[in-house]
Amino acid sequence: MDKSTGEELTDSEGNTYTATTTFTSSASGSGTVEMTFTVPGNIVSGKTVVVFESASFDGREIAVHADIDDEDQSVSYPEVGTSARDKADGDSQITADRTVTIVDTVTYTALTPGNTYRVSGVLMDVETEKSVKVDGEEVTAETTFTAEEADGTVEVEFTFDASDMTHDVVVFEKLYTVDTETDEEVLVASHEDIEDEAQTITVKVPTATTTTTKTTTTTKTGSSPKTGVEDRRWLLLCLMAVSGVFLLCSRKRKKETK
């Protein structure tokens, strides 16, 4: 039985899953007998199933146990799905030039309320399909929580230096049930799909830019003459002085001649 609907568990064609066994009771009339149900994993994934039993003798039903809330007859098959986002702005893209935080929201179904669980995640390289490593260490994160209801969500945060990243990444998650008395853990569900877009974060690699500095040389024009100009002026003054002396001497000679 599917606990969420209270109806018989069926496949896509409406077929139910049943099991039967025939046995001879003990002399005391008390004892146990086992029955095996074989069900495809995808049919029960994310569901809690409950076994209803009916005992017959000589073609007549003599006993029935059909309690949809009986925990002893219930088996849960948890399922998880995730959705990864950049914590800074909530989109599915990060820039490979700084420390970033990716928040992975893990959605779970068919957990047992009151039980303790641990979600453990790792970042995977989309191109190489291998785990992402920073300084030689895998980028991982985890969180432990107590399920308040069978279905819900929990967040896992990955904080790391993305400066050297060049490929897109995908978040892989595993869900474990934790025995709080012994700390023993059992894997109950996982979500590891390298092509899952909801789990994928696009890595934007900054484009390198080159800045060119142009240096301009400016020649200032001042009021002081250049050295060559000064030399020509002094030469002109000297010639004028010599000419003046020559004229004076010529006039003096003329007067003496008269």
Between the first and last Cα atoms, what is the distance in angstroms? 157 Å
Number of strands: 15
Structural class: mainly beta
In N-to-C order, the SSE pattern is: HEEEEEEEEEEEEEEEH
Amount of helix: 10-25%
Oligomer: single chain
Low-confidence spans: none
Radius of gyration: 46 Å
Largest sheet: 6 strands, mixed
Shape descriptor reads: rod-shaped
Structure annotation, total helices: 2
Query: How would you state the average pLDDT, rounded?
Result: 87
**Proportion in β-strands:** 35-45%
Structure notes:
The strands form five sheets. Strands 6, 8, 11, 13, 14 and 15 form a six-stranded mixed sheet that branches. Strands 5-7-12 form a three-stranded antiparallel sheet, with no helix packed on it. By secondary structure, it is mainly beta. It has helices at residues 41-44, 227-257, and strands spanning 47-50, 53-57, 60-65, 74-77, 79-86, 93-95, 99-109, 116-125, 133-134, 137-138, 140-146, 152-161, 169-178, 185-191, 200-204.
Q: Could you provide a short overview of the structure?
A:
This protein is 14% helix and 36% strand. With 258 residues, it is mainly beta. Strands 6, 8, 11, 13, 14 and 15 form a six-stranded mixed sheet that branches.
Task: Name the features.
2 helices, 15 strands, 36% strand, 14% helix, mainly beta, rod-shaped, three-stranded antiparallel beta sheet, six-stranded mixed beta sheet
